[in-house]
Design a protein that fits this description.
Strand content: 5-15%
Helix content: 40-55%
Order of helices and strands: EHEHEHEHEHEEEHEHHEHHHH
Bound molecules: phosphoenolpyruvate, manganese (II) ion
Radius of gyration: 23 Å
Number of strands: 10
Shape: globular
Distance between the termini: 63 Å
Oligomer: single chain
């Protein structure tokens, strides 16, 4: 398979105009310039948490997608969640589909879907299930392989994380890496949009996945991301996609194994530091809000009990590690002094 395998296109098909103009710009700014787009994506049936949210235009989008195939030569792919969806794709000659994370979690549905594509020459891309369960993901992929589907790929989209996190879905990189070890012949793509949840983090997630030897990327692309009916914050314009792709290192620049290892770890550190700096920003915002509440209610700024609680929170994971403990102690002191200064500033 040609690397990197690129999938681009909007989260959802919204209108003929939106779909065709996105495809046209992708063709002109990305495909014709430098990067081959292997698949144009568009969700036609959208699995939304809130029943009142935009849930896709359904079958109406297929003639638009056919036009995109004809005009720009893109292979089109859509999400399918039921055998009826598969039948609809067949009706319009669309033979590349992905199984979403809310479907790949359910062995009954996956089995039904596998039966519905049996013997029909579909390319099936299976996203990791919404729960962090490698065996379940592998099992969903194997259900298609067992039915003789020869073109099967895996897409990693992270897993929901109950902890307050800057990313929409936690990458848990060990899961796709393990999948690749156990199914080395299945191409592995990274859906950076659904991991990031915000276009600000796309580049770093993409680079980490490429450094981990992923075979390609899925990137949600919209002609006017700010007007998107779903996932507006994580979508980028075709121009932004071109810029993003231009900034990525796709091939390992010939270098020693040591240099490669270092680059991989440094990318990871860069990513972690971005997260820490954004989290600190959020922390300061909360500190400022607390400052206002204290001021309005004449509550003293320093609360020793509260500081003790936070100290415990930080120290807990490092009970057996004196070096880390010493760092945390100094760090907390700084953090605490800084909070006091911020709140005093507003007095
Ligand atoms: C999508 O790709 O638009 C989508 C709904 O993905 P996921 O199943 O990963 O949430
Ligand atoms: Mn989406």
């Amino acid at each position: 398979m040609e690397r990197p395998f690129l999938i681009a296109g909007p989260c959802a098909a919204e209108s003929k105009e939106q779909l065709l103009s996105t495809a046209q710009l992708l063709f002109e700014t990305v495909e014709q310039k430098k990067f081959h787009i292997h698949c144009f994506r568009a969700g036609v049936w959208k699995p939304r948490s809130n029943p009142k949210s935009f849930s896709g235009v359904g079958e109406k989008a297929f003639p638009w997608l056919q036009e995109i195939e004809k005009r720009f030569g893109f292979t089109v792919c859509v999400e399918v969640a039921t055998p009826e969806h598969v039948a609809c794709c067949e009706k319009y000659g669309i033979k590349t589909v992905w199984i979403g994370s809310r479907t790949s979690v359910n062995p009954f549905m996956v089995e039904e879907l596998a039966q519905s594509v049996e013997g029909k020459d579909f390319t099936v891309m299976v996203k990791n299930p919404i729960t962090p369960d490698l065996a379940l993901w592998r099992g969903s992929i194997e259900r298609f392989l067992e039915k003789g589907v020869s073109k099967v790929m895996a897409i990693h989209r992270g897993v929901p994380d109950s902890h307050e996190n800057l990313l929409r879905n936690a990458p848990v990189w060990e899961i796709p890496v393990e999948l690749k070890v156990s199914l080395p012949d299945i191409p592995l793509l990274c859906d950076i949009s659904h991991i990031a949840g915000n276009k600000e983090y796309l580049r770093q997630i993409a680079q980490i996945s490429l450094d981990l030897s992923f075979d390609g990327l899925m990137i949600e692309t919209h002609i006017h991301p700010e007007q998107a009916l779903s996932d507006a914050r994580q979508q980028i314009t075709p121009d932004e996609l071109y810029k993003l792709l231009s900034e990525l290192h796709f091939k390992q620049i010939p270098s020693s194994p040591v240099e490669k290892m270092l680059r991989k770890e440094r990318n990871m550190i860069e990513h972690i530091d971005t997260q820490i700096s954004r989290l600190l920003q959020r922390r300061w915002e909360a500190i400022d809000r607390i400052g206002v509440i204290k001021k309005e209610n004449s509550i003293p700024i320093v609360d020793a009990k509260q500081f003790g609680k936070i100290k415990e929170l930080y120290m807990h994971p490092f009970v057996d590690d004196p070096l880390s403990q010493e760092f945390i102690k100094q760090y907390l002191e700084l953090l605490h002094q800084n909070s006091i200064q911020r709140q005093k500033r507003d007095e």
